[in-house]
């Protein structure tokens, strides 16, 4: 029996800042961001958007045409959760009106947890072949104004349905795994902004890639040439270039620059304009590959590498299915990326800083209304988050 992705969709906020605006503010050459880290725009959530509203929008899109009564599990992957106790997925469950007979819970391990959820769901589905599992990876990447990580922020959610009817991509059961306790990126409970040792995190990413790739090869007996395209966790698109060059060298593959770039470039298109989506990043990259590849990828094996700082890495693969194009949401995705409003620096800063204006004493505070999708974060009352469906 085959298990894999039946449907996939993403959503991001309706506002962005161009990184040349940020470069001007930070006294940097725009090409450091455009070329050096490979990022051009960065999604910025308005005050009435959070990981729940991003996720609910991605979820309702991914569930189009799916019988929701067959869903029995929703796994919400995030590292920017809104509550230490209650899973953000429960709000999503209510907003998109999912059946009561489901389990919903939250997963965390930096940017890795979406891939972790996928790994748990595969054997589960083999034992429950009539069920479907929904995974939603939703995050808002925040590093701090003027910080080294600032140009690598972003926001977005990716939702995908796993089932025994994998119309888009089957996932192979074997994967390579790696865990190592390192402090390359973390966020203590008392701060809203991630702390990062940027250069060290790039080294740790590469170490995790090497070790999980090696285990994948040892277990499967496959080699580099068995894989047609590569999809990486992309905190910034240049990271994908660095990672793939590293893997090409490590695997001893003899490829020209044009050849190795072709293996990764389609997967980096959405990320370049949205920024880091943390747990969703590797799946946003997969959506980007599927939507933007001019080549028919049917029957091709694709390699995916998920990395979560701290750190966990997993290298896994899947095979693209016949007629997968019919099940993609290419026009919707492209319009989401294209139809956003550009922010000037002051409005970006105002959106960024809004979170710290929310009361923590239980008093009522409603959020100002901005452009959102179908769902918005309406405010707080008695320490409870209020959401509403936009008519
Ligand atoms: N034109 C073109 N390229 C330029 C440039 C210019 N004017 N100025 C600098 N660059 C290049 C640098 O040469 C460098 O390229 P390289 O990495 O290939 O050597 C790149 O731009 C970045 O410059 P650097 O000085 O290293 O940037 P930085 O000290 O600001 O740090 C990150 C960059 C990515 C480490 C930082 O943004 C960060 O910490 N991000 C968050 C952490 C993260 O995403 N980690 C990834 C693993 S999960």
What is the topological layout?
Elements: E1 4-11, E2 15-18, H1 19-26, H2 30-36, E3 41-43, H3 51-62, E4 71-77, H4 88-95, E5 103-107, H5 113-127, E6 132-141, E7 154-163, E8 169-171, E9 176-179, E10 185-186, E11 195-196, H6 198-220, E12 229-232, H7 237-251, H8 257-264, H9 269-274, H10 281-292, E13 301-308, E14 312-320, H11 330-338, E15 341-342, H12 345-354, E16 365-366, E17 375-381, E18 384-389
The structure holds coenzyme A.
Description:
This protein has helices at residues 19-26, 30-36, 51-62, 88-95, 113-127, 198-220, 237-251, 257-264, 269-274, 281-292, 330-338, 345-354; strands spanning 4-11, 15-18, 41-43, 71-77, 103-107, 132-141, 154-163, 169-171, 176-179, 185-186, 195-196, 229-232, 301-308, 312-320, 341-342, 365-366, 375-381, 384-389. With 391 residues, it is α+β, with helices and mostly antiparallel strands. The chain has one domain (4-389): 3-Layer(aba) Sandwich (Peroxisomal Thiolase, Chain A, domain 1), CATH 3.40.47.10. Helix 4 (88-95) links the parallel strand 4 (71-77) and strand 5. Helix 6 crosses helix 7 (237-251). The structure holds coenzyme A (COA). Residues 29, 31-32, 35-37, 148-149, 151-152, 196, 198-199, 201-202, 205, 235-236, 239, 307, 309 line the site of coenzyme A.
Strand content: 15-25%
- In the CATH scheme, what's the topology name? Peroxisomal Thiolase, Chain A, domain 1
State the CATH architecture.
3-Layer(aba) Sandwich
Helix tally? Answer: 12
Tell me the CATH superfamily.
Thiolase/Chalcone synthase
Broad structural category: alpha+beta
Largest sheet: 10 strands, mixed
